[in-house]
Amino acid sequence: MGDALAGAGADLGARTLVICEAVSMYLPPVAVDELFAYGESLPPGSKFVLTYLPRAVAEDPRHAKWARRLRWQTAFHPPELAGQMAGRGLSVRADVGAPEYREQLLRPIGRTLRVFEGERIMVADKA
After folding, report:
1. Which of 17, 43, 56, 124 could form a disulfide with 90, with the two C-beta atoms 3.0–4.6 Å apart?
2. Residue 105, SS3?
3. Number of neighbouring beta carbons within 10 Å of residue 81
4. 87-119: b or e for each residue (b if 16 or more CB lie within 10 Å)?
5. Buried b / exposed e along 45-75 (16+ C-beta atoms within 10 A)
6. Range with the lowest mean pLDDT among 12-16, 35-39, 72-76, 120-124?
7. Where are the alpha helices (DSSP H) in 1-127?
8. 126 exposed, middle or buried (CB, 10 Å; 0-12, 13-18, 19+)?
9. Which CATH architecture group holds 15-126?
10. Could you tell me which of 8, 74, 77, 18 has the C-alpha nearest to residue 45?
11. Contacts with 22 (C-beta within 8 Å, 6 or more apart), sequence order
């Protein structure tokens, strides 16, 4: 991934903000691991933001129709994801669900937005 960005003119030594929004659940685990590996290569001061599907949601029989229809492939338990981030040199600073997202991020700026109740957002820093 870094090679493609460098080829497009990106400065790989500059602090970087990586946003993987509404992506991880549709990718196979190996591709998500490649994203995490890229996160490990980020320079200090960078941020890695990921929306993800909790494993409890993905495995809930009530969501089986959605899982098949949307082809969900990857999900995490929040502590499992934090462990994977730590293993890649990333420190999780926030991991919130829809209610917290609305209250902490949208409400203070006067915004309302439909947020999928089953999805979480994780923000990690590269030290």
Report:
1. 124
2. helix
3. 23
4. ebebebeebbbbeebbeeeeeeeeeeeebeebb
5. ebbbebbbbbeebbeeeebeeebeeeebbbb
6. 12-16
7. 2-7, 29-41, 55-58, 64-70, 78-87, 98-101
8. buried
9. 3-Layer(aba) Sandwich (3.40)
10. 18
11. 51, 119
Domain edges within the chain: 15-126
Length of the chain, please? Answer: 127
66 in helix, strand or coil? Answer: helix
Do the beta carbons of residue 38 and residue 90 sit within 8 Å? no
Nearest-angstrom CA–CA distance, 56 and 114: 21
Packing angle of the helix pair 78-87, 29-41 (nearest 10 deg): 50
Q: 66-121, pLDDT tens digit by residue?
A: 889 999 999 999 999 999 999 999 999 999 998 998 898 889 999 988 888 889 99
